[in-house]
Amino acid sequence: xxxxxxxxxxxxxxxxxxxxxxxxxxxxxxxxxxxxxxxxxxxxxxxxxxxxxxxxxxxxxxxxxxxxxxxxxxxxxxxxxxxxxxxxxxxxxxxxxxxxxxxxxxxxxxxxxxxxxxxxxxxxxxxxxxxxxxxxxxxxxxxxxxxxxxxxxxxxxxxxxxxxxxxxxxxxxxxxxxxxxxxxxxxxxxxxxxxxxxxxxxxxxxxxxxxxxxxxxxxxxxxxxxxxxxxxxxxxxxxxxxxxxxxxxxxxxxxxxxxxxxxxxxxxxxx
Length: 271
Fold this sequence. Notes:
Layout: H1 2-27, H2 29-51, H3 56-75, H4 79-99, H5 104-125, H6 130-157, E1 161-163, E2 167-171, H7 172-192, H8 201-228, H9 243-267
Antiparallel strand pairs: 1-2
Helix pairs in contact: 1-2, 1-6, 2-3, 2-5, 3-4, 3-5, 4-5, 5-6, 5-9, 6-7, 6-8, 6-9, 7-8, 8-9
């Protein structure tokens, strides 16, 4: 019953937040940039609260500024300079946190951890490009489908734990359910909207690897929270915890599917 009540709270939160994300993705350009920048502020705050609890505000500002510089550079189409900004921003945030008496590596890693997916999401959306919109939709639909079905299947079917050392609530049934949902979502998206693929069946494979990345991202964040000794990244979203608890899998899916798009383009299998 507790799991079902939590599912209801999650559903209500999703009904409030999902339309904002969908509209920003559809509008693209400055609207999508605004969505990413707002997420960067919130994620930088949560990361600082977890990794530098003694001085969270200045560390959050340093991480957020590095993320802002990276995403803004990516938005104007300067991908290579954006990568340089990301690396130097991580180094600057780390040095700043160290001067405050906090762990510099944690601040630097936070910039890379949060900035790399943000950079790739903006690159994927690619302004008003139709193919960019399609691939961005693929990332979100696959990640959301895998995340939701993993929770539902795990709550209803239960069974053996997936990785009890770091995430005692996740089960193999949820893992399999998430993979199946992600693969199915990928096939549906590839069948409905143009992704520049030779056949919609490619969507099945993309959905599967995107779902696997989503599960990996969720587990990785669980390990990070265990390292920092916190249960949730924050309390922003009822039923979910913090924003990082909501987008951890999405961040990994964005990286993997962006890499898949590059590889397919290089082999001539995608536009």
